[in-house]
Amino acid sequence: METLPWYIYLFAIFTGFVAGIMNTLAGNGSALTLPVLVLLGLPTGVANGTNRIGVLVQSLTGYLTFKKGGMSADTAAFKWLVIPAVAGSVAGAQMAVVLHEKFLNLALACLMLLLLYLTLKNPAQWLTTQQPNAHKLRNAKTLMLMFLVGIYGGFIQAGVGIIILTALVPFAGYSLTQANSIKSLLVLAFTIPALLVFILNGQVNWLLGLLLSVGQALGAWVAATFALRVARANVYIRYLLIAVIVFACVQFFYKFAV
Q: Which of 106, 130, 176, 191 is least surrounded by Cβ atoms within 10 Å, i.e. has the fewest?
């Protein structure tokens, strides 16, 4: 295994920590980790694959922390969402090995504008504490949405959590904390096959991936604990979500333009 300067280890772990918080509470932490991996010398494809190690560990940590705090993922909702998402992730990861992402960035930038509108349109929907309705998710549109979520998650990952939260909070009535628990388990499920595709194609740097995962696990634990213990967590998480969506929108438009 290669040796890196000591400060690279600390930098990678700190980057993972911040990304773990972002991903667990809102999403788009990969918008931070992917550029850092490229900055550290990895080709884009290898950075994309390496990033999945931290996402996997962080999702597992976040879910277990939510579960320990009494916020287990809704089994009825998860079973309905996981199959199309996992199927899509395999296709998306395979696409990532061979396809250019330029025009996908344009589509995602437009999608982020739509999600920003939905997030700002009715704040009360995002701050709900009412009983969720998993039955609202059981339709063909949701299956297709989750398949597309899986494709995108397998392809590039960044921002996929935002899309999942939009499906679970305003449409199904989950609180942001409940939705984040389901999101953590769902991302874990479709990251496993995607990571395997990247491993089989030799696009994973294990050292940097494991360094990121240390920070992301810690960040996920801190974020999930915050969401469970802070009374106004839903309010703060929504503000973070808005900021992350704006950042993602700018980033995707910029990537399309250059």
A: 130
Is the whole-model pTM more than 0.70?
yes
Rounded to whole angstroms, the Cα distance separating 30 from 36 reads 9
End-to-end CA distance of the chain: 35
Residue pair 127/177 in contact (Cβ under 8 Å)? The answer is no
- For residue 189, give both structure tokens: 């499920």
- Segments of 8-166 assigned E as strands: none
Name every residue whose Cβ is closer than 8 Å to that of residue 87 and which is 6 or more positions away in sequence: 147, 150
DSSP letter for 135, please.
Answer: G
Does residue 1 carry a pLDDT above 60?
Answer: no
Q: For the segment 182-233, what is each residue's pLDDT rounded down to a tens digit?
A: 888 888 888 888 899 889 989 899 999 999 999 999 999 998 898 888 877 7
Residue recorded with tokens 């850092």: 36
Cα–Cα distance for residue pair 69/62, rounded to 1 Å:
11
3-state helix, strand, coil in the chain (%, to 5): 80, 0, 20
Yes or no: say if 128 and 175 are a contact pair by the CB < 8 Å rule: yes
What count of other Cβ atoms lies within 10 Å of the Cβ of residue 128? 16
H/E stretch holding 177 reads: helix 176-200
DSSP state, 139?
S
Structure tokens at 73: 């993922």
